[in-house]
User: What shape does this take?
Amino acid sequence: MEEVWECVVNMPWPVKDLMSVRLEFVSLASQPEANVRQLCRRFEISPTVGYKWLERYEKGGVEALANQSRRPLRSPGQTSQEMADKVVALRQAHPAWGARKLRRRLQDLGVTELPATSTITGILHRHGLISPAQSLAAQPYQRFERSAPNQLWQVDFKGDFPLAQGRCHPLCSVDDHSRYNVLLAAC
Assistant: This one.
């Protein structure tokens, strides 16, 4: 017995973008005697969002329903442009100096209310005064460690010192997992 699968071609999936959904919600909610909370449940949005869309539409029309920037309108703690200019000018005069040295020099020059060292680093990055290679070079050393004992031993001579019989060269071997001193020999 052979099964036949029938495909219905005339019923495409409804494709809706966010703006059309918002516009549909607003048009339904604007009807006289519309239940906004019931519409919110139907559209699976919170009443807060629903009323926000209605308020935006009333104030600015369809364009106001578009996504808006979440950036704050003002940032009272933001570093002033004057301070950023001082940092940039000092860095351009001394390209090898980092944020800590720049901050200290500005302090010595009598500049008050200096930003944090990390903020100065951010200013240098924003103005392209720190290259990615410099950032990589400034990363702290990251010690590698093996996941199990005896996978890797580090062997090294630890300098030398004089003895009556001659010079002694201590040889040290350390397990890279446990940091256990496996060998210490006087050579």
User: Anything to note?
Assistant: The beta strands are 153-157, 161-163, 166-168, 170-175, 181-186.
